[in-house]
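INFO  loader      accepted 1 record
INFO  loader      residues=252
INFO  predictor   begin
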Amino acid sequence: MTVTDGSDLWLRRFHPAPDAPVRLVCFPHAGGSATFYFPVSAALQSDSDVTALQYPGRQDRRSEPNVDDIGVLADRIAPVVEPLFDRPVVFFGHSMGAIIAFEVARRLQERGHTPAMLFASGRRAPSTRREENVHQRDDDGIVAEMKAMSGTDAQVLGDEELLRMVLPAIRSDYRAIETYGPVEATVDCPITALVGDDDPKTTVAEADAWRAHTTAAFDIRTFRGGHFYLSPRAAEVIALTREALRGAVAVG
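INFO  predictor   done
INFO  writer      dumping tokens
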């Protein structure tokens, strides 16, 4: 597939599989980048064409303005992802990425494209809300949050110059997700919610509330671990995702 219309800025294929019968589109967490999904791409390259989103303001896009509004991000991502729907597509989003995936799915559904499945990992349902203000903290406060969540490379946290470089994007992401919702909308694709049983950001009940956001099937899977349970439980998450990809192909 030829990437056009600036989508090369947004989409990363670490192991291109243009002839695969299904696509997996991965949405990173707040402060995250496409490279977070490199291991997923490596593990599933024989099953699907894996694409990860790269948001503005980080890595090779750090010179671009950050986007601190979920709706604006979804509006910009939807037309970039739309050409991928020449075959079944599965969305996987972790934390903030789960909400962005949901909002992109809503927009694409209006255009006649519905994902075969949406995995909502490590994030409360759109209709639930907590009062959070990480984006209003000083730099040290944001760094403390990042360390507590254990989702940022220790090398980054230990490199003062690099850390200061990425903090604007992280703050922007936190502002985007902390000012989002509540939203009561639904999508027509099945949703599977994934959550760690010790996640301080999402309780099992808050994850289960995703069932109200689909008109199709719903499932919830709980894993041992915290907010980034999916790193130590990677084999289990990969197996579950592979099953969904094969199911999407079978359905067509």
